[in-house]
């Protein structure tokens, strides 16, 4: 499901989460907590949403292109 957040803000948040996740997983204390809380699934959900957002943006672009060609 796509959230109400603007695409650019969402992408920045996803990038930040991926950077933080990698560093926390490498930490001896926080690494096991990240695994225990299944944070990898959260990151994958965010990646999936980003792919959906990109596809939606492509569709909008194609629809606008079609509408301008017809009109």
How would you portray this structure in words?
This protein is mainly alpha-helical and 71 residues long. 83% of the residues lie in helices and 0% in strands. It has 3 helices and no strands. Helix 1 packs across helix 2. 0% of the residues are buried.
Can you give me a brief rundown of this structure?
This protein is an all-alpha fold.
Rg to the nearest angstrom?
17 Å
The overall pLDDT, averaged over residues, is 91
Judged by helices, strands and strand pairing, the structural class is: mainly alpha
- Provide the low-confidence segments as ranges: none
Q: So what's the overall shape?
A: rod-shaped
Tally of helical runs: 3
Order of helices and strands: HHH
Number of beta-strand segments: 0
The helix content is over 70%
Task: Report strand %.
Answer: under 5%
How far the N terminus sits from the C terminus, by CA atoms, comes to: 33 Å
Note the main sheet. Answer: none
Q: What brief labels describe this structure?
A:
71 residues; mainly alpha; 3 helices; single chain; 83% helix; 0% strand
Write the layout of secondary structure elements.
Elements: H1 7-26, H2 30-36, H3 39-70
Helix pairs in contact: 1-2, 1-3
């Amino acid at each position: 499901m796509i959230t109400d957040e603007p695409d650019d803000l969402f992408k920045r948040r996803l990038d930040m989460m991926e950077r933080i996740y990698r560093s926390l997983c490498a930490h001896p204390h926080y690494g096991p907590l990240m695994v225990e809380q299944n944070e990898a699934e959260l990151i994958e959900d965010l990646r999936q949403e980003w792919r959906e957002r990109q596809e939606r943006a492509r569709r909008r672009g194609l629809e606008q292109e079609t509408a301008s060609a017809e009109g």
